[in-house]
Amino acid sequence: MSDYSSQLIEQRRTLHQWPEEGWTEFWTTAYIVEKLRSFGYEVLLGTKIINPEQVFGRNVELVEEGKKNALARGVSEELIAEMEGYTGAVGLLDTGKEGPTTAFRFDIDCVCVQETANADHKPNKEGFRSQHNGFMHACGHDTHTSIGLTLAKWIADHKDELKGKFKIVFQPAEEGVRGASAIAGSGILDDANYLFGSHISFMADSGEIVVAPYGLLCTSKFDVKFTGKPAHA
Fold it and tell me: What's phi and psi for 21, nearest 5 deg?
């Protein structure tokens, strides 16, 4: 029997050390791709899963810096080219048996937060603090990505017991509500009969799942412009 707990922890701690902000997650995407392909998934990248016309908040200079960082950390030029300048990945697995298409979505970006130097902070005590100064997985997306990869491994391990098709979606640029529209706009999810998203939270105890399809994990982005004389509130 596979030890999925060990996989969860190892992946999360690796990802926690190398956080990348939205649309710059080239190393993170490469890490995801290599894992998925080792599990036997077909992996889609670039404009196969991203609609460039629906990309929001993408800074080209930061994107190029993200590519350079990924190459410096050992990602191949071939894999960077496969991404076509866009981060994120979708793993596809067909059980070969008729059934629904089930999709699971996990976000992969970090926030621009400096991780504490407090010696009692667990990542400092156990050697997996952020190595990217000024950036941190402070919103749990390292955990989300690890959960997605471990779910993908579980599905692959139990393929013969399942039916239908599975899509494991690793979405870039969740922070700032920037990446979901580009994924949806690509059409990659149009055939999904079921789509699940999730977020870790302190509102639930360990081993507990809270189902909240409306409100809690739903959001919309609006750009609002005010015209008038500027003043203090």
Answer: -75, 170
Domain that holds residue 171: 4-197
Question: How far is the C-alpha of 209 from the C-alpha of 20, rounded, in Å?
Answer: 27
**Integer distance in angstroms from the first to the last C-alpha of the chain?**
61
Task: Report the number of secondary-structure helices (H) and strands (E) in the chain.
Answer: 7, 5
pLDDT in tens, the chain (233 residues): 468 999 999 999 999 999 999 999 999 999 999 999 999 999 999 999 999 999 999 999 999 999 999 999 999 999 999 999 999 999 999 999 999 999 999 999 999 999 999 999 999 999 999 999 999 999 999 999 999 999 999 999 999 999 999 999 999 999 988 999 999 999 999 999 999 998 888 777 888 888 876 766 666 667 788 888 887 76
Q: Is residue 162 part of a domain?
A: yes
Domain of 37: which CATH number?
3.40.630.10
Q: What are phi and psi of 228, to 5 degrees?
A: 160, -170
pTM of the predicted model over 0.85? yes
Rounded to a whole number of angstroms, the CA Rg of the chain reads 18
Nearest CA to 153 among 42, 45, 10, 41? Answer: 41
- Number of domains within the chain: 1
In a domain, 204, yes or no: no
Phi and psi at residue 172, to the nearest 5°: -80, 165
**Strands 89-94 and 42-44: what pairing?**
antiparallel
